């Protein structure tokens, strides 16, 4: 494992390039997330947000540039994917829970298989992470018995059970009704308050303003404007002005 001695960043991207065929999706993207920081990745649909997030967890390989995540050189072909994915939790818009497993089984699967936890330890852990997302009573339920918001909270709990050093969220509330969105955002807000390092792709501007330490506005595969949450109220580029003005 390659260490990055020059930085305390949990995640850092430097001049990252990524194309799909002839379509350049990431065109020299750089940003960093320090320990305990919340970074909100915003921008219009197609601007490259999900691709940037997927590169961090190596679901996509970059064409150029450097990505360091918890000391792992993600851009290198010899990156230890197993170690990387123990440090990084990722939650998508669709919940991706295994439908044929109970919530408890969904949560204990990876800690047992990947971390070698004993079944009893994993079950204790499942209770703990479900309490964190307010779903203790759903331990033995199946995903289809849960609302969308509850499923998303269970998916977050499943990620937390791996005790990641950083959590990535990709529009985790965009498939939910406003009421269910609020309960999921509350869980994320609590994680932030507890000091979890997070990179969050979101369309919830009010939420981003409230909890993000840093905003990265992407436009056409580039970081077009970045800064503290106040850039959402005082944007300097016409593109961000338009983006926040139109409620994206
Ligand atoms: P965002 O999350 O900001 O909406 P994405 O990162 O999903 O943007 O996509 C950026 C661009 O890359 C889009 O034009 C999308 O169609 C394209 N794209 C994303 N993934 C793939 C893929 N696997 N193959 C081809 N094109 C892709
Ligand atoms: Mg996306």
From TrEMBL:
Membrane topology: Peripheral membrane protein
Alphabetized UniProt keyword annotations: Amino-acid transport, ATP-binding, Cell membrane, Membrane, Nucleotide-binding, Transport
ABC transporter domain mapped to chain residues: 11-245
Gene Ontology terms: cellular component: plasma membrane
Main location group: membrane
Family listed: Belongs to the ABC transporter superfamily.
Protein known as: Amino acid ABC transporter ATP-binding protein
Pfam families assigned to the protein according to its UniProt record, in alphabetical order: ABC_tran
